[in-house]
Amino acid sequence: MTSTELTAGVTAFIPGPASPYQGDIARYWDGEARPVNLRLGDVDGLYHHHYGIGDIDHAALGDTGDSGYENRLISELHRLESAQAEVLLDHLGPIGRDDTLLDAGCGRGGSMVMAHQRFGCDVEGVTLSAKQAEFANRRALELGIDDHVRARVCNMLDTPLERGQVAASWNNESSMYVDLEDLFAEHSRVLSVGGRYVTITGCWNPRYGQPSKWVSQINAHFECNIHSRREYLRAMANNRLVPQAVIDLTPETLPYWELRATSSLVTGIETAFINSYKDGSFQYLLIAADRV
Ligand SMILES: C[S@@+](CC[C@H](N)C(=O)[O-])C[C@H]1O[C@@H](n2cnc3c(N)ncnc32)[C@H](O)[C@@H]1O
Ligand SMILES: CC(C)=CCC/C(C)=C/COP(=O)(O)OP(=O)(O)O
Ligand SMILES: [Mg+2]
User: Fold this and answer.
1) What is the CATH number for 194?
2) What is the ipTM of this complex?
3) In total, how many domains does the chain have?
4) How are strands ordered across the β-sheet holding 149-153?
5) Best exposed site among 34, 65, 89, 100 by fewest CB in 10 Å?
6) How far is the CA of 127 from the centre of ligand 1 (A)?
7) Is this prediction's pTM over 0.90?
8) Alpha carbon of 177 to ligand 1 centroid (Å)
9) How many A from CA of 51 to the centre of ligand 3?
């Protein structure tokens, strides 16, 4: 194991990828700089790599014709992405200032900052990408919360956290990069008994039958492996995680996608999300589970 000092003064442990696939994913996120993510993050300094939920505020958006419309559209997409993270945090249960939380697959750290700002607690994040961890730690330093919010380069299936160390943990659109049995075994290990696990994820719908062509297109686009709703529930049951809430957020995420599809920041994946949500082959799901 090697270690390196980040500009933020936080030591990141870099054990190297556990598999060639993880090496590919680390390179993918090290190289990611899509305007749809950076321009949205620039709105208020919360950088997300997840999607949005909720109704469009048409009054705030105003007329398509006028000069400020594109900036207002970007602000609106960003507001919906932050609203998504707020809903995830709503499901963590009561969290105290002395608690520690785990953000598994933390990206550029937007959700970690929001969690600390809401609860005053410590938040530990892990990502495969050294660039993302540096970015998240730099933001924490700029905000003066680097003593509470820390991102490390490590595999979420094998974290340096102690058994039972965290009061709550989550995956926000990061569980489609790992085996779910391995993932939930690790969350179950680091969560205290009675702690809460939350995921927001896209999953394929067993009622459709198999992954649709749209789901396959999303997998190819992000180099990920979307699991089915059934796999989530089965792997949780096998790892002492008992669902407390299963919420289908599909109707709430469609407005975000339909608005995003009209913006200058489109990436080309919008049609696959919209079509798969509409044909029922894909669902945007929140699952909150108790560690028993
Ligand atoms: C789509 S981004 C989500 C980022 C963040 N959760 C958010 O909501 O902004 C997926 C993240 O999962 C991370 N990831 C994927 N596989 C991982 C693994 N095995 N261990 C740690 N992080 C992983 C990636 O590095 C990336 O940060
Ligand atoms: C719901 C599913 C299946 C998500 C896959 C994981 C993923 C890449 C999420 C968004 O990241 P991003 O914010 O970097 O993507 P984009 O650039 O499209 O906004
Ligand atoms: Mg994005």
Assistant:
1) 3.40.50.150
2) 0.99
3) 1
4) 149-153, 122-127, 100-104, 166-172, 191-204, 282-291, 241-248
5) 65
6) 5
7) yes
8) 8
9) 6
Alpha helices in the chain (DSSP H): 20-30, 35-41, 58-61, 69-90, 110-119, 130-142, 180-190, 213-222, 229-237, 250-260, 270-278
The binding-site residues of ligand 1, defined as CB within 6 angstroms of any ligand atom, are 22, 25, 29, 48-50, 105-107, 110-111, 126-129, 132, 155-157, 172-174, 177-178
- Residue from 36, 128, 173, 212 to probe ligand 2 pocket by mutation (most atoms less than 8 Å from CB): 173
Residue 113 pLDDT > 80: yes
| pLDDT tens figures, 41-78 | 999 999 999 999 999 999 999 999 888 999 999 999 99
Q: Which residue has the tokens 């002492």?
A: 240
Q: Which residue's CA is the closest to the ligand 2 atom numbered 15?
A: 49
Residue 234 CA, ligand 2 centroid: distance in Å: 24
- Expressed as residue numbers, the domain containing 210 is 2-291
> How many whole angstroms separate alpha carbon 133 and alpha carbon 147?
15
Query: For residue 211, which ligand has an atom nearest its CA?
Result: 2
Q: How far is CA 174 from CA 17, 72, 225, in A?
A: 16, 28, 10
Q: How far does Cα 265 stand from its chain's mean position?
A: 20
Give the pLDDT confidence of 1-35 residue by residue, as tens digits.
Answer: 333 444 444 445 556 789 999 999 999 999 999 99
> In this structure, which residue's CA is closest to atom 2 in ligand 2?
202
Closest CA to 102 of 235, 196, 226: 196
For the CA of 103, the nearest atom of ligand 1: 6
